[in-house]
Amino acid sequence: MLSPMLKIHNQRKASECLQPEGLLGDCMLKYGQELGEDSTFGSALTDMGKAMKLMAEVKESFDINVKETFIDPLQLVHDEDLNEISHHLKRLEGRRLDYDYKRKHVGKIPDNEITQAMEKFEESKAMAERCMFNFLENDVEQVGQLALFIQAALEYHQQSANILQPLQRKLRMR
Questions:
Q1: Where are the domains of the chain?
Q2: Around Cβ 58, how many Cβ atoms within 10 Å?
Q3: Tens-of-pLDDT digits for all 174 residues of the chain?
Q4: What are phi and psi of 39, to 5 degrees?
Q5: With contact defined as beta carbons under 8 Å apart, do 43 and 49 qualify?
Q6: Are the C-beta atoms of residues 98 and 121 closer than 8 Å to each other?
Q7: How far is residue 15's CA from residue 49's CA, in Å, rounded to a whole number?
Q8: Rounded distance, CA 26 to CA 57, Å?
């Protein structure tokens, strides 16, 4: 869902806001200005619109941060590590089938072909095991990426709260 949104965003650039908060902020600013600063509701709408625009910027920053620190590395793990493991497992299965076939037909197939099939099977097994081991060794890095994601989420919510708390006090005073 994020990918099409980013594609649209890259096409439309920063001049247009994609965040719902930004669209709501634009609407509030427009109608707050139409009502005028003399109107309590109009000035409250204008203040709220400004806050919503700020929240849209914070959310946009959060989206970009999450994509760069969490989604892209996760996609990289999928595209590289998991695909490599899958490739080696498919190769291992093919070589296992070849070795089993040649083992069952001892006497019809020369011993050197059976030995060669066994060596290829063992080689593929070792390579698949190594790839899986390397993937599991990256647990610390993957947990670190989750920690970055949580940090970004916390920062987003703290910034949002920092925007909304003064607005709430201002509206209560009105």
A1: 2-173
A2: 20
A3: 455 555 555 554 444 457 899 999 999 999 999 998 888 999 999 999 999 999 999 999 999 999 988 899 889 888 888 999 999 999 999 999 999 999 998 888 888 999 999 999 999 999 999 999 988 888 888 888 889 899 999 999 999 999 999 999 999 998
A4: -80, 130
A5: no
A6: yes
A7: 17
A8: 13
Q: Which two tokens stand for residue 93?
A: 């299965």
C-alpha distances out from residue 87 to 63, 84, 132, Å: 33, 5, 12
Q: How far is CA 101 from each of CA 67, 87, 114, 163, rounded to the nearest angstrom?
A: 48, 21, 9, 69
> Is the CATH number 1.10.3720.10 carried by domain 2-173?
no
- Dihedral, CA of residue 35, residue 36, residue 38 and residue 40, to nearest 10: 50
Q: What does the block give as tokens for 144?
A: 């670190």
Q: What are the angstrom distances between the C-alpha of 3 and each of 9, 10, 20, 67, 145? A: 10, 11, 17, 9, 19
Per the confidence metrics, is the pTM higher than 0.85? no
Burial 10-48 (b: 16+ CB within 10 A, else e): eeeeeeebbbebbebbbebbeebeebeeeeeebbbbbbb
